[in-house]
Design goal:
222 residues
C-alpha cells in the first residue's frame, strides 16, 4: 500500500493544471520545511476542475489586471522573516458574527430563513457555487447538472485510482463541499486516512442548510 496526497482546489479560475499542481506541491514542501518536520511527501495528485467552468485558464504572460485571465495569485515563497501573528481578537469578532448569522438565517431544523438573501449573495459573489448548487436539478440534461457531475467525477476517479493506497485528502474552499458530497453521498466506500480542509465554507449557513437538506433526502430514500 502506497501513500498519496490528493488535493482539490477551490473557487475561481486557475492557472493550467500542471502549474497549479506544481505550486500546490511546492507550498506543501515549504510548509513542511518551515515547520522543521522530517516528513517526505508521497505521491501527489491535484484534482483540477476549473476548466469545466472556465473557457481558458489564467495566464502568467497576461499583464493587464483587468483581463479575466490575469493571474492575480501566483505562488511565491514566504519571506524568511515572516512571523505568524496573533488573531485572537479577530477570531472572537468572527465567532460573534458567525453565531449571529446562525440565529438570523438558520431555523432549528437547519432550513434557511431569508433564502432570497443567500441566493443573491451566491449569484453576486460565488458564481461557481451557484452553478454547483443549482446542479442538483433532477433534469440531468441541464448545463449546471452536467457541470456538477463532471466536477464530482474528477474526484471520484482520483479516489478510484488510489483505492488501494493510504490517502490524505486536502480540500480548499469550494473543494471542501465537493469532497464532502463525494465522501458522504457518492463514494462512501472510499478509504480516506486523513481529511484536511483549508478555508472551508462548510460553516456558512446556506451551506449547512444545503447539506442538511441533502442528508434528509438521502435518509428518506433508504
Amino acid at each position: 500500500m502506497s501513500k498519496v496526497v490528493i488535493a482539490i482546489h477551490g473557487l475561481g479560475n486557475k492557472p493550467p493544471k500542471e502549474l497549479l499542481e506544481k505550486w500546490a506541491r511546492n507550498a506543501i514542501e515549504e510548509g513542511i520545511k518551515n515547520a522543521r518536520a522530517d516528513i517526505h511527501i508521497p505521491d501527489f495528485e491535484l484534482v483540477y476542475w476549473a476548466d469545466i467552468l472556465y473557457e481558458k485558464p489564467q495566464d502568467q504572460e497576461i499583464k493587464d489586471i483587468k483581463s479575466p485571465y490575469f493571474l492575480d495569485e501566483p505562488y511565491t515563497r514566504a519571506p524568511k522573516n515572516f512571523k505568524v501573528g496573533s488573531y485572537e481578537i479577530r477570531q472572537i469578532f468572527l465567532d460573534s458574527v458567525k453565531n449571529l448569522a446562525y440565529k438570523i438565517l438558520l431555523k432549528e431544523n437547519y432550513e434557511l430563513r431569508y433564502g432570497f438573501v443567500c441566493q443573491k449573495l451566491l449569484h453576486n459573489y460565488f458564481h461557481e457555487l451557484e452553478i454547483y448548487f443549482t446542479g442538483n436539478s433532477e433534469a440531468s440534461t441541464s448545463i449546471n447538472c452536467k457541470a456538477k457531475q463532471t466536477i464530482i467525477n474528477r474526484l471520484v476517479s482520483a479516489l478510484g485510482r488510489h483505492s488501494q493506497d493510504e490517502i490524505m485528502l486536502v480540500s480548499h474552499s469550494m473543494g471542501t463541499i465537493i469532497a464532502l458530497d463525494v465522501l458522504s453521498f457518492i463514494a462512501k466506500e472510499s478509504h480516506i486516512n486523513t481529511f484536511g480542509t483549508i478555508g472551508s465554507p462548510l460553516g456558512l449557513p446556506f451551506v449547512i442548510s444545503r447539506i442538511a437538506s441533502q442528508s434528509k433526502k438521502m435518509n428518506q430514500g433508504h
